Amino acid sequence: MTHPYKSLPKTAFWKPAVAACNPLEIRDLWDPKFAVRPQTRIATFGSCFAQHFSKALIKNGYSWINAEHPPKEFSEADQHIFNYNVFSARTGNIYTASLLLQWLLWATGKTAPSEEVWQKSGRFYDPFRPAIEPNGFETGAEMMRSRNVTLNALNAIVKKADIFVFTLGLTESWFNTESGVEYPMCPGTTAGDFDKNIHQYVAQDSEFVVAKLRQAISLLREINKNIRVLLTVSPVPLVATNSGQHVLVATSASKSILRAATVTAVNDFDFVDYFPSYEIINSPVFRGGFFMPNLRSVTPEGVAFVMAEFFRGATACATPAPARKMPPSPPLSDSVDELHCDEEILEMYAELGGSSE
Q1: What is the sign of the dihedral through the CA atoms of 330, 334, 337 and 343?
Q2: In the chain, how many domains are there?
Q3: Residue 298, SS3?
Q4: Which helix (DSSP H) or strand (DSSP E) does residue 17 occupy?
Q5: 97: closest CA among 183, 166, 178?
Q6: Which of 233, 321, 223 is nearest to 277 (CA)?
Q7: Packing angle, helices 140-160 and 97-107, rounded to 10
Q8: Band of the pLDDT at 352, cuts 50, 70, 90?
C-alpha cells in the first residue's frame, strides 16, 4: 500500500528526529529558501533577541550593515550606552510589525514623521526611541535632528540590503488615538506622561498583525526589488502584560499570533523565509536549559546553539558541533551579554502590583 508518509525523510517524524536524539544533536531545523553567504549584506531590526544576530554575524565574518556609526571619540562603553552598534540603525527596539511599517513609511517619506516630543526633568525624549539617549536631548530640535539621521539611515539600508532580518516580539501595543501613531513603549514608563483619554492599549490580533506585516514586507520590496526578508519570533517571554490575563498565558497568546503571522508571510511571498529561533529556545525538548534563572534571558549557550543552526543552514560551510551534553545549570546571576530591551523597564512596576496609581 502506497501513501505519502512512506517517502518522507526522518526529519518528518518525531521519534527519529527528536525523541531518539541527544537534544544538542538535533539538526536540520531550518531549510532556507535562499543562501546567506559572508558577502550577503544583512540588516537586522526588531525586538531584543535580534541583537544576537548582529553580534553573531560580525563574529563569523558576515556583512552586517551598520548605517549609524558612533562619534570617533566614543569609548566602547559609550557606544553601548548610546545605543550604537545595536541594530542596523538607531531605531531602538521595534517590537511589532505595525511599528516596523510606521518606521518604513516615515523613512521613505510616504507619511510625515510625528513631531511629538516628550519631556522629563528638563530633557527631551523621542517617543519612538525613548531609551536611545539615556539622559535625553537638550532640545526638541536636537531630538528631531537625531531621529532624521536614523530615518535617512533606515532608507539607505533598505535600498542596499540583500536580506532584511526582522524579529517580531510583541502583540501588545500603545497608540495615540488623536494622531494614530504607535509607540514602542507605554507613555509614562520611560518618559512622557500617560493620558488615558489619548493613549490606547491595543492587543493586536492575528488579522491585524498579518495585515501590517504584509504591508511592511511589500513596502520593503517596493523600495528594493531584490531584497529578501528573514523573519524570526523572539523566544523571550513578556516582561508584563496589560491584557488582564496571567503573564504566562498572555505570552503564549502573543507568541502564537506572531508565529502564525510568519507562516502566512512565508506562504504569501517567495522572498520571505522564517528561521526557528523561537522553537529552538522554547521547545520542551531542551527542558528550559537555555534560559537564565529569571526564565526570560537566554543563556550564552542557547544563543550559540541557535546561531550555530543558523550558519549551518545558511551556508554549506561546516560549523563545529556543540558539546554533546545539555548545558549546566545556569549561574545564580542573571547577567548575560547586555542587550537593549526597552520593555524591561516594566519590571520595576512589578513591585507596585495591585496599586491603582
Answers
A1: positive
A2: 1
A3: strand
A4: none
A5: 166
A6: 233
A7: 100
A8: low
What does pLDDT average to over the chain? 89
The one-letter code for the residue type at 316 is A
CATH of the domain at 260: 3.40.50
**Is 107 among the domain residues?**
yes
pLDDT in tens, 75-90: 988 888 898 999 999 9
Kindly state whether residue 299 falls inside one of the protein's structural domains: yes
With contact defined as beta carbons under 8 Å apart, do 133 and 207 qualify?
Answer: no
Yes or no: say if 233 and 190 are a contact pair by the CB < 8 Å rule: no
Give me the amino acid identity at 310.
F
Instruction: Tell me the three cell numbers of residue 351.
Output: 513591585
- What is the span of the domain harbouring residue 134? 39-171+206-345
Q: Concatenated DSSP letters for 268-325?
A: H-TTEEE--HHHHHH-GGGTTTTB-TTSSSBPHHHHHHHHHHHHHHH-SS--PPPPSS
Q: Is residue 193 part of a domain?
A: no
The tens digit of pLDDT for each residue in 334-351 reads 444 556 666 666 656 565
Cell numbers placing 186: 507605554
Q: What are phi and psi of 182, to 5 degrees?
A: -110, 140
Longest Cα separation, the chain: 78
Does 244 map to a domain? Answer: yes
Question: Residue 96 in contact with residue 212, Cβ under 8 Å?
Answer: yes
